[in-house]
Design goal:
This protein is mainly alpha-helical. The termini are far apart.
Length: about 90
C-alpha cells in the first residue's frame, strides 16, 4: 500500500455562523483521520488525541464584530438619551 499525500484545508468565514461551521468541519476531519490512524477502535482514546501530530493555524480578526458592538452601543446610548430627555407639554 502506498503513501497518501497529506491534505491541507483552508476555510474563510465572514459571519460567526460560518466560523462555527468551519471549526466543526475541522473537528470532523481531525476525527476522521484519527479513526483511520487507529482502525477498529470503537472510539478515539484521549491518549491517541494527545499524541497524534498535526499543524493547526488559526487567524481570528474580531475587528468587524467589535465595530458592530461599538455601533450598537452608540445607537443604544443615543436612544437612551433621547428616551430620557424632558418633553415640552
Amino acid at each position: 500500500m502506498g503513501d497518501i499525500s497529506p491534505p491541507r484545508y483552508e476555510w474563510s468565514a465572514r459571519t460567526a455562523q460560518e466560523a462555527e461551521t468551519s471549526l466543526e468541519a475541522a473537528k470532523h476531519l481531525i476525527d476522521a483521520h484519527l479513526k483511520t490512524l487507529v482502525p477498529g477502535d470503537a472510539f478515539i482514546k484521549s491518549d491517541t488525541r494527545r499524541t497524534s501530530p498535526l499543524v493547526l493555524r488559526i487567524s481570528l480578526d474580531l475587528g468587524p464584530m467589535v465595530e458592530a458592538i461599538n455601533e450598537s452601543r452608540r445607537l443604544n446610548e443615543q436612544f437612551d438619551l433621547g428616551d430620557t430627555a424632558p418633553t415640552d407639554s
